[in-house]
């Protein structure tokens, strides 16, 4: 291509010539229709949407036509007056006298089209919320409407009012926030509801007085956090904290400063009196302000968001103070994202959470009760129960389905807002109250953690021990199941592994038998290791209940190691012969050219040797091992030909590290340091800080 010549996508000549320009124009014309022209009312249709919600029966009989017609109309402009007290009353009165009174009895017209007078939302307290429904043509031709528009824009920029969708104002009103409450907004951006929460927190305060409560506003998207900060800075409140975190993993405890005597204080649980969980959703309730949803709507949005919504709601219940109130809300009509999440939360909490009857709150606000039964659909068909769907469904989960247990819950206390009932968007709200601590399996305090906290021990360590013990028990069950499939377990009395130094000394002192002992079968070895894992797991829990952190950590690590040995021994050995070319490549990586030449004759002997050094077939007493395996072995795959990584659990080496680096005795080094070397048993390969997901370089 000559210098200065422009490359064209069409393969034709240079600048302005050939087929390039024509093909570019052709591709440009293939843009989606929604980007080429405004979506007309006749284009607002979606057969899948109508089929799905007709089957869900969310609209009363005889109102389906009005429901669709309302969804196709533009959403009116609504705003609310910020704050409370004399200033808010004065602004409301000025709006009524200076602007709204000029509409008279509603006979004002533009080009023969009647102008709808401003409407005060009857259910919003003190008459602070208003609805304006003007067309663009009316706004341009009527000076009064233009003045109202300019006033609303200026007041919004000044922070006197906030433009906000009508049904979006509902969830904070049901929270009943008081000035002394600690409030959490889990999915806060863009911040209109957070603004309402701050207003409720400051309500009744004297000028210059700071309420004792606070509002923590969180959002997972840091760009939306900027929008949240911009929206809430107009309230000028010192009681606001904006954080950027995954709502389902917000920190639930804080580490206080060390005690004066050098001890370590227990962690402080983070609890809130009020929590708003306005979770991410498919958003089909916002069709009136986002008409492109008509084209994009499909079932995959709601089905894929259900697990995320459930995790956020469960974590919110965990962080809620006993006696506190949580509001779960979405802007969708979908029962899979609404009632299904609330019902599953109530079932998992086992009576610790309950639905609140708020039928007497905001009586002028029309609402539909929640449903006790609903259907779930994948890309192919509808299902009524999980038993019907579990073997043939596509990307569905059991928590999505209604059950007799869920049908017995008071789900009618949930609220669904339909657009044709109040000329609004669609919304769903459920008000919940926490009446007791959650069960441990739902995120509540674990018995070992509670005992450790009572003894002044580290709660995080107790949680880790309980999780390790649970993992060991799960591995034990898997090992026994694998053993049952492998053959008959027998009733032999196998002595558990790991009964201490006395058992080892007794074994060493025993005279050698005259005849060789029968070879231990893999099933017997698995059973012995599994029994040792179970005994060590019970010892770990007992040690944490007694407050002995070091002994419990060692017992938990030993339980996990024994469980892994049991699973490895019980798994059937699968020998996989690899092509000769692949064997030569492996040999070249391990030992270079010389290894290829020397290892070719012995390839048949070494193949399938699971106990060779540096493989996971070598049973070592460590909590976990990564790398050093092979295809078909327990830790094969992409780490098969890497040097193994294992935790550093040698007490002599650990003591040297503590002394050399001057670390305090309570530093949790034993849980976070590992070693990488050519053989699992030893060697110098550097230390690794081993996090819960992957090793990370530590030092040396």
UniProtKB/TrEMBL annotation:
<feature type="binding site">
    <location>
        <position position="246"/>
    </location>
    <ligand>
        <name>S-adenosyl-L-methionine</name>
    </ligand>
</feature>
<keyword id="KW-0694">RNA-binding</keyword>
<feature type="binding site">
    <location>
        <begin position="187"/>
        <end position="193"/>
    </location>
    <ligand>
        <name>S-adenosyl-L-methionine</name>
    </ligand>
</feature>
<feature type="compositionally biased region" description="Low complexity">
    <location>
        <begin position="563"/>
        <end position="573"/>
    </location>
</feature>
<keyword id="KW-0539">Nucleus</keyword>
<dbReference type="GO" id="GO:0016428">
    <property type="term" value="F:tRNA (cytidine-5-)-methyltransferase activity"/>
</dbReference>
<keyword id="KW-0819">tRNA processing</keyword>
<feature type="compositionally biased region" description="Gly residues">
    <location>
        <begin position="9"/>
        <end position="21"/>
    </location>
</feature>
<keyword id="KW-0949">S-adenosyl-L-methionine</keyword>
<dbReference type="InterPro" id="IPR018314">
    <property type="entry name" value="RsmB/NOL1/NOP2-like_CS"/>
</dbReference>
<keyword id="KW-0808">Transferase</keyword>
<dbReference type="GO" id="GO:0000049">
    <property type="term" value="F:tRNA binding"/>
</dbReference>
<dbReference type="InterPro" id="IPR029063">
    <property type="entry name" value="SAM-dependent_MTases_sf"/>
</dbReference>
<dbReference type="InterPro" id="IPR001678">
    <property type="entry name" value="MeTrfase_RsmB-F_NOP2_dom"/>
</dbReference>
<feature type="compositionally biased region" description="Acidic residues">
    <location>
        <begin position="603"/>
        <end position="612"/>
    </location>
</feature>
<dbReference type="InterPro" id="IPR049560">
    <property type="entry name" value="MeTrfase_RsmB-F_NOP2_cat"/>
</dbReference>
<feature type="binding site">
    <location>
        <position position="278"/>
    </location>
    <ligand>
        <name>S-adenosyl-L-methionine</name>
    </ligand>
</feature>
<feature type="binding site">
    <location>
        <position position="219"/>
    </location>
    <ligand>
        <name>S-adenosyl-L-methionine</name>
    </ligand>
</feature>
<keyword id="KW-0820">tRNA-binding</keyword>
<dbReference type="GO" id="GO:0030488">
    <property type="term" value="P:tRNA methylation"/>
</dbReference>
<comment type="similarity">
    <text>Belongs to the class I-like SAM-binding methyltransferase superfamily. RsmB/NOP family.</text>
</comment>
<dbReference type="InterPro" id="IPR023270">
    <property type="entry name" value="RCMT_NCL1"/>
</dbReference>
<keyword id="KW-0489">Methyltransferase</keyword>
<feature type="compositionally biased region" description="Low complexity">
    <location>
        <begin position="501"/>
        <end position="524"/>
    </location>
</feature>
<dbReference type="Pfam" id="PF01189">
    <property type="entry name" value="Methyltr_RsmB-F"/>
</dbReference>
<protein>
    <recommendedName>
        <fullName>SAM-dependent MTase RsmB/NOP-type domain-containing protein</fullName>
    </recommendedName>
</protein>
<feature type="compositionally biased region" description="Basic and acidic residues">
    <location>
        <begin position="22"/>
        <end position="34"/>
    </location>
</feature>
<dbReference type="InterPro" id="IPR023267">
    <property type="entry name" value="RCMT"/>
</dbReference>
<dbReference type="GO" id="GO:0005634">
    <property type="term" value="C:nucleus"/>
</dbReference>
<feature type="region of interest" description="Disordered">
    <location>
        <begin position="1"/>
        <end position="39"/>
    </location>
</feature>
<feature type="region of interest" description="Disordered">
    <location>
        <begin position="563"/>
        <end position="629"/>
    </location>
</feature>
<feature type="domain" description="SAM-dependent MTase RsmB/NOP-type">
    <location>
        <begin position="67"/>
        <end position="435"/>
    </location>
</feature>
<feature type="region of interest" description="Disordered">
    <location>
        <begin position="484"/>
        <end position="524"/>
    </location>
</feature>
<feature type="active site" description="Nucleophile">
    <location>
        <position position="331"/>
    </location>
</feature>
């Amino acid at each position: 291509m000559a210098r200065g010549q422009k490359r064209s996508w069409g393969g034709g000549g240079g600048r302005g010539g050939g087929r390039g320009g024509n093909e570019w124009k052709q591709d440009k014309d293939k843009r989606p229709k929604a980007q080429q022209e405004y979506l007309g009312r006749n284009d607002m249709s979606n057969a899948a949407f109508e089929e799905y919600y007709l089957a869900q029966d969310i609209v009363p009989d005889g109102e389906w036509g009005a429901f669709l017609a309302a969804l196709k109309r533009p959403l009116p402009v609504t705003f609310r007056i910020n704050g409370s007290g004399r200033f808010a009353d004065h602004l409301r009165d000025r709006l009524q006298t200076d602007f709204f009174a000029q509409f008279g009895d509603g006979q004002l017209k533009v080009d023969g089209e009647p102008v709808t007078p401003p409407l005060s939302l009857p259910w919003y307290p003190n008459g602070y919320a208003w609805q304006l429904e003007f067309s663009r043509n009316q706004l341009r031709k009527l000076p009064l409407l233009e003045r109202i528009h300019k006033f609303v824009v200026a007041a919004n920029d000044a922070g006197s009012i906030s433009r906000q969708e009508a049904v979006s104002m509902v969830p904070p009103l049901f929270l009943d926030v008081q000035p002394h409450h600690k409030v959490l907004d889990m999915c806060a951006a863009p911040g209109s509801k957070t603004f309402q929460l701050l207003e409720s927190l400051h309500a009744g305060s004297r000028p210059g007085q700071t309420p004792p409560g606070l509002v923590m506003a969180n959002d997972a998207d840091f760009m939306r956090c900027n929008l949240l900060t911009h929206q809430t800075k107009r309230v000028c409140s010192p009681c606001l904290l904006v954080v950027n975190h995954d709502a389902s993993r917000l920190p639930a405890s804080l580490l206080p400063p060390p005690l004066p005597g050098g001890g370590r204080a227990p962690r402080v649980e983070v609890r809130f009196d009020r929590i708003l969980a306005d979770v991410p959703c498919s958003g089909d309730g916002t069709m009136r302000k986002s008409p492109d949803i008509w084209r994009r709507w499909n079932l995959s949005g709601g089905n894929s968001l259900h697990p995320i919504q459930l995790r956020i709601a469960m974590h919110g219940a965990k962080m809620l103070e006993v006696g506190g109130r949580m509001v779960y809300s979405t802007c969708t009509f979908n029962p899979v994202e609404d009632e299904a999440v609330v019902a599953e939360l109530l079932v998992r909490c086992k009576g610790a959470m309950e639905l609140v009857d708020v039928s007497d709150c905001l009586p002028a606000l029309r609402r539909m009760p929640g449903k006790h039964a609903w259907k779930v659909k994948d890309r192919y068909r509808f299902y009524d129960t999980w038993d019907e769907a579990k073997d043939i469904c596509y990307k569905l989960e059991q928590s999505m389905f209604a059950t007799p247990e869920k049908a017995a819950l008071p789900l009618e206390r949930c609220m669904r807002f339909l657009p044709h009932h109040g000329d609004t968007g669609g919304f769903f709200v459920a008000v919940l109250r926490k009446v007791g601590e959650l069960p441990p399996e739902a995120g509540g305090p674990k018995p070992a953690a509670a005992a450790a906290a009572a003894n002044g021990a580290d709660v995080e360590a107790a949680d880790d021990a309980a999780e390790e013990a649970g993992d060991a028990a799960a591995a034990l069950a898997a090992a026994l199941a694998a053993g049952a499939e492998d053959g008959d377990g027998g009733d032999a009395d196998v002595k558990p592994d790991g009964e201490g130094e006395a058992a080892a000394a007794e074994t060493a002192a025993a005279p050698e038998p005259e005849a060789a002992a029968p070879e231990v079968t893999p099933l017997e070895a698995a059973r012995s290791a599994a029994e040792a894992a179970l005994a060590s797991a019970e010892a770990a829990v007992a040690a944490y209940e007694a407050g002995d952190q070091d002994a419990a950590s060692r017992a938990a690590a030993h339980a996990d190691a024994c469980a892994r040995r049991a699973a490895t021994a019980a798994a059937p050995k699968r020998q996989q012969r690899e092509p000769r070319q692949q064997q030569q490549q492996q040999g070249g990586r391990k030992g270079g050219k010389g290894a290829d030449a020397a290892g070719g004759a012995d390839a048949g002997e070494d193949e399938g040797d699971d106990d060779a050094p540096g493989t996971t077939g070598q049973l070592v007493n460590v909590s976990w091992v990564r790398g050093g395996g092979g295809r078909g072995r327990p830790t094969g795959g992409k780490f098969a030909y890497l040097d193994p990584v294992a935790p550093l659990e040698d007490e002599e080496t650990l003591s040297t590290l503590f002394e050399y680096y001057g670390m305090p005795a309570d530093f949790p080094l034993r849980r976070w340091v590992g070693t990488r070397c050519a053989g699992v048993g030893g060697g110098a390969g550097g230390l690794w800080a081993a996090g819960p997901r992957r090793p990370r370089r530590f030092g040396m």
